[in-house]
Each structure stands twice: as C-alpha cells, then as structure tokens.
Amino acid sequence: MAELTTLARPYAKAAFESADAAGQLQKWSDMLTLAAAVAQQDGMIKALVSPALTSEQKAKAFADVCGDELNEGAVNLISVLAENKRLTLLPEIQQLFEQHKAQREQSVDVEVSTAFELSGELQDKLAKALSAKLDREVNLSTVVDKSLLGGALVRAGDTVIDGSVRGRLAKLAEAMNS
User: Fold this and answer.
1) Could you tell me the residue ranges of all domains in the chain?
2) Which Pfam families does its entry note (predicted)?
3) Three-state secondary structure call for residue 87
4) Percent composition of the chain: helix, strand, coil (DSSP 3-state, to 5)
C-alpha cells in the first residue's frame, strides 16, 4: 500500500495546489470523491485495465461516466492519469488530497471508540479537549465497540491515544514481563 501512496502523492499534491490557487478546494474535493468512487466500480476497473483500450479512450470513458461533474482541470488530471496508466490510483489521490485540505483548513477527523454511547455533552467536552491538545478544529465521530471493557480509543490521523481498559492492562502486562 505504501507504494500506491508514493505513486499517488505527486498527483494529489498537483491537484491540491491547482485547487488552492483557484480557490476551489471544496469543488476539487467533491470531484475527486466522485472520481475515486467511479474508479472503484467493477465495470470501470475492467475498462481501466483493459489492454484493448487506448489511454485516450479510457480517459474519455471515465470522463463520460462522471458527466458534467468534472471541470476542465479534473478532466485534464484524468487524461494525465490515463496516459501514465495511473487511473486506478484515484482513491489514494483523493485520500491524500483530503489530508492536504484538512491540513490547510487546520482541521482533523477524530474517531473515538468507546464501550458505550457518548452523550452529546460529553462529545462536546471531548471535542474541545482534543481541539486544544491537537491545536486544530476537530471533526469528531464516535463508534461503539463492545469489545472494549471501558475507557476510549482515540484516532486522529496517525496519532492514537489508547485510554481503554484493555490497552492499560496490556501496558501493565508488558511492564510486568520486562
């Protein structure tokens, strides 16, 4: 997977810089989300890997499926990806674009896993505390994980805060065994 991310990174960066310069970050986010979804459809995957189609035919077919949702810049990106046989990277490009966008907007998506449903008040307090700790606006989503005994597991990008009972017990066992 790291290889796909490495291949997708320059395309995502170019798309982000173009969108940022034009003041169209949300428009490009929407277009890339659509393109990534189209690229993952079974019929489109078969067309994208088909040796019978030229890169121009693949780009045209892809743009036709997306319809009027893509602007000229996005169509150009699709053409470049088709020429370089990289259309299957669109999901990774979209994810990297969203990371650039979140970094620019100083926001982060945070997923909190708990053993029970959190009240709205508790979610607000947690979001404020995480916002202060991470120095970013926090988009909080919660997941109930019945396998947790108690506490919470917080994921914010590549930062993980394990405040679960299971995590604490694992740390205690590790400390006792060393």
Assistant:
1) 2-102, 106-177
2) OSCP
3) helix
4) 65, 15, 20
